[in-house]
Structure formats: C-alpha cells, structure tokens
Amino acid sequence: MKTIVYSRDFEELEIRPQPAIEEYRRLIAEEIQSWLTRPESLAERPCPGCKGNESVLVFEKYGLNYMQCAACSSVFVSPCPSDALLTEFYRESRAARFWRESLASRTLETRRKKIYGPLAEWISGVIDRHYPDAGTAIDVGYHSQLLVEELSSKWAFERVFVTNPAADIECRNLRSRGVELRPTPLAQVSQFGPADVMLSIDILNCISDTDTVFQSARSSLVPGGLLMMTALSISGFDLQVLWEHSSNIYPPDRLNLFSSEGLVGAVQRHGFQLLEFSTPGMFDVENVRRALTNNPDLNCARFVRYLVMNRDADALHDFQEFLQRHRLSSFVRLALRKV
Amino acid sequence: MRLTKPLKVLIVGHGYMGQIRRRVVDSLPELTLCGICDPVPCDPVATVVAGFSPRSIFTDHRDAIDSLKPDIVFVCTPNKYSPDICVYALESGCHLFCEKPPGRSLDDVHRIRKAELARPDLKVMFGFNHRHHPAILEAKSLVDAGRMGRIIWLRGVYGKSGGSGTEFEHSWRNDPEISGGGILLDQGIHMLDLFRFFCGDFEKVHGIVATGYWNIGVEDNAFVLLRTAAGQIAQLHSSATLWKHTFRLEIGLENGYLVTQGLLSKTGSYGRETLIIGRKATGDEEIVYFDRDLSWDLQVKELVRCIQNNDPVTDSTSLDALRVMGLIAEVYSQNRSYADCSGGL
Lengths: 339, 345
Prior knowledge:
The structure holds two protein chains of two kinds.
Chain A: E1 2-7, H1 12-15, H2 18-35, E2 42-43, E3 55-61, E4 64-69, E5 75-77, E6 80-81, H3 83-92, H4 94-106, H5 108-130, E7 136-139, H6 145-152, E8 159-162, H7 167-170, E9 179-181, E10 195-201, H8 211-220, E11 221-232, H9 237-242, E12 256-257, H10 260-269, E13 272-278, H11 284-294, H12 302-310, H13 313-325, E14 331-338
Parallel strand pairs in A: 7-8, 7-10, 8-9, 10-11
Antiparallel strand pairs in A: 2-6, 3-4, 4-5, 5-12, 11-14, 13-14
Helix pairs in contact in A: 2-4, 3-4, 5-6
Chain B: E1 7-12, H1 16-27, E2 31-37, H2 44-49, E3 57-58, H3 61-68, E4 72-75, H4 82-91, E5 95-98, H5 106-118, E6 124-126, H6 134-145, E7 151-159, H7 166-169, H8 176-179, H9 183-199, E8 204-210, E9 221-227, E10 233-239, E11 246-253, E12 256-261, E13 274-279, E14 285-290, H10 295-309, H11 318-334, H12 336-342
Parallel strand pairs in B: 1-2, 1-4, 2-3, 4-5, 5-6, 7-10
Antiparallel strand pairs in B: 7-11, 8-9, 9-10, 11-12, 12-13, 13-14
C-alpha cells in the first residue's frame, strides 16, 4: 500500500472564492428546512464506516444531527434524508443551481488546472500501474465534466458512463468522445458494467447509503477492476481541530465524514484490496488559520493556535506536508482493487 | 500444465540471504522446503522450531541434491561457490534460483549459462530483487506508460555505512578470493541491473574504482559512467564509505523526473522507501511512500509461475546476469593497473 504527498502552490480560495461559498451556504441554509429536514423524510441509520449502532450526538447543523460512532469515531448525520430526496435536492434546489451556474463556472479554469488535471493524472497513473488494459469506466460522482474532460486527454477509454443523478444537467456541455450521460440511481449503475474502472469522487460524503457505492462497484467491476475514491475524513487535522466550527462540515454535501479507521473498515468489509490510502490535502493548516483569524475566540489547543498564527509560511508548509505524509490531512484518496 | 504438488526446494547456503529465501519458501503454498545445505551446520534450535528433520540438513550440495532430488535449488552462497552449485543443480535436472552476484567473474556466468542451455526444460532466475521493490515498480510503470517521455539520464547512488569496521573488513564480501570484487560487485550490481531494467543495454562503460578507506583487498568505492546506443547516459556511485545506508536512483525524462530513494528492508536502515514524481509542465512534485516490500515474494512467485506454466523466464534471467557482469568486468578491466598497484581486485 502507498501514501502520497502532493506539493502544489495554491490556496483553497482560488477554487472556493469566499463570497460565492458563503452565498452557496446561505442558500443551503434557506432551503434545507423545506427540502431535507422534514421528519417524515428522515431515517435513523448506523455508522456508515463500521455499521456500529452506538453513537452520540456531537453537534447539529442546519437542523440535522451529527453523530459520532462509538466504535470507529466516524461522524455522520442521523436521522438522514433519503438518497431520493438528496437527488432531488442536487437536481432542483437553488443552491445546487447556484453551484452549477455561478460558482462552478466562475472557477472553471482554476479547478480544471489545479484540481481535475492532477486528479486525472492520479487516476491515469493508478490505471497505468494496476490495470493498463482498462477500456470502460463508470463515473458515479457529481461535478464530473472537468474530470471526464481531463481524463479523456490522458487515457483512451473506449466508453465512459457518467451516471450521477444530475449528470444530464451538470454535464450537458460535456463533449468528449465515448462519453455517455446516464443519470441513474447509484444502486442501478451495475447495468453499465462490466467496467474496468469506477470513479467515486467525493460521493461518499453526500449520500445516505454509502454501502451502495461499494456494492455497485462490486457488481459493476470486472475481477481486478479498480475503484478510485476521494472523500473528506473527520480524522484530518482541520476537521479535528475545528470540529463543528469547520466551514467544511455542512449538510447535505457532508453527511458522512468517515474516520480513517471507519473508511478502511468499510473497504475491507466490502472485499476490496487497498492499493493506496493517502491524504494529499493541501488546505488543513490554511483552513485552521483562516478560522482562527476570522474568529479569534474560537476554542483551540494552545500549541495549534501558536503554530498556525505565529509561524512563517515555510513552517506551515512543512506541517501540511507532515500531515500528508502521515495520512492526517482531511482530504482522503483511495485506490482499491476488486478481489 | 498446472502442477498440483508443491515444488520441493533445497536451499544451499543458510546465511543471511538463505534465511530470507527460506521465509519466502515457507510462506508460499506452491513450495515446500525439503532440505537445507550449509557447510556450517544449521542452528539446531532453528531447525527444531521449523520441525525440520536432521536428515534434511546437509553440508555438501552434491549429497543434498542427489539425496533429496529437489525441484528447485536456491543458491545463496558466497560468490566463489555459487557457479559450481548452480551447474551441478542444472546438470541434476533442478530449476535454479541463484542470488546475485552470480559468481566472481564473467566466466562464472558463462559456465552457468552453458549448463542452462544444455537443459532448456529448466528455469533459471537470479536474485535481482530490486526490480520488484514497490518504488521501482511504480517508477517503471510510469516510464512504460510513456506520459513522462523518454529517459534522458539515470543517476544512482547505492552505499553502505561499513558499520564498526572490523566485521566489515573481515567479511567474505571483501575477500577477493571469495568475492571476486568489492562494493561494485556486491551492491553496485543491483543499481547497474536497474539501469538496464530502465534503459536496456549500454554500449559505453567507463569506470573508476578505488580503495580509499577500508583495509580490504577490493574496492570500497566505484564511479561508473555508461551510455546506451540511443544516447541515454547513466552514472553510478557505489560506495562502502557513505557512513549511512543510502539508496537513491534518479531518472531524468523528457517531461519530468522520478527519484526513488530509501528501501524497505528488515532494519529500515535505508530509510522509508519513496518515489518522487516531478512534472516539468507544472513544477508539481508528488511523493509516494510505500510501506510493504513484496520484492522477495514477487520474484519467487514469478519463477514458480514460469515452472508451473512452462513459460520462459523473462525477468532477472541469466542473460541479465551476463550483461550486468559484463559491465562490471569492463570496469574492473579498465582498472587493472590500479588493482595491480593496490593489491586488490
């Protein structure tokens, strides 16, 4: 198994401009009550990581309860809106429209260069190494357009199915050879198999039933096929330090925040071999520093406050690299093989 | 045709390397250890723990091969003894796995190859296990994928600390009569093999060796410059005076660079195994850390696969051994006058 450290020079604000992000969250806060928090549409659920049933309430956001699993420490929303309701939200809500039509388009080229180019580079590298004959891929993640475009320039897939339930809306401008848009519930994507590769970018954080990702990968992938995933993890530095004050924890985009242990447990439970577990995140330290700057009264360990507020850019860069090297950043990347 | 019975393995030479190979053999269901041969009788405690019958322990490889009739012989002996044992094993109809170096000289490899060519039904592999280290495998797949362009140059440093000194100076590895050469033959051979693994054969070789510190009859440092017919150049520094175990292979390509450094090993003394991937277009660097060395297992599994499927061996072959020994022989030849003066080589 391998882990990866990534060194690249940019700030989160370049891809997530603060005013636009604030507007996105304001819309979510406005709409979430009417869309996702109706008691009749919420259901209790076990820990998505280890399936444990014991959990405690740790905080609440926008009317939804975040629980922490007593066994693996994953944090997750429960009771949770159904995936059908979430799909409706991501297709129809004003917040989702704002993301697609304003925020995403405004940061299109930056995200292409800084996020999706390197992501496609990573994906093609894993395929080179572990499945060089890969010809068919299924992408189940949201915001696929840039990823598929970048990936198409690096890997000659014969067929790529983009299947997220909003694919027809999100990717209507996608023009890449061999790409088919098939908005489909996750549980039904196996109809597009057998596939050599499945991509699940950030999807684990924003669905109700995370087992369906692994189950659909198991039923869609050929033996030895690859499942590549990214997710935000509660074990990462910024989320551990900031906890409920983290601006990156909010429903419905972050309904599940697996701990490292919970994520590895889920991978093993579903019979995948772990080829890579890395946390090449670049913004943990920056996120904590920004949060403390914006809110000096925030409760925070003295050493952490001292480090991020008093030390120079080199020290912060080195500390971020330390987090990456020891799998302690909140951005997690997994390469898995179906066995 | 797939064999159902495990292949019987005899290990000749039960020192450091022999014990590593034994662990691999014990871990693979396709293999069963039928005997150990070592001129120094094996540690009785270790053999009892392994449930090993004293009748399976030999001090002469001929007796062991004749009595046990193994399917595969692992030769893990000092360089002086390896060729005779390899030839006897092949003449006795055994598949062969021989540690590197495959002998003390190019002639030794020619002898082994002659015996191999007389028995085309047998499989022969040499212990160039560095090819199977995870950072090297990752680097190779990146190079082979072609995205980073053609290799322009290679630069390798591989060296030992030499430890406290006394033990190092008295090691058989530094006795020219037994080893046939110094650090270049003992350890530099791995890096030269990796150069060939990435670039193929080299047509030009220039080397300088010296015994600069240790009181030994072989070189403790070697610098080697090489060039392929396609113009790719490579540089090796093989050293027994680095004072810290070091492994570093840099690969310069048209669209970036790769650096593998550190080696996963039993003691971890070479540092954490990493691969740095640098890209020319963006200036980005990616550092890959590895936590599991499967090199020993992968290589032996490949030999077993070749035997079971009767496939030709394509990895760490006798031709690879011949070619890399040819490079070393050329360097030693260029330094003959120095060796005459220093009494080594």
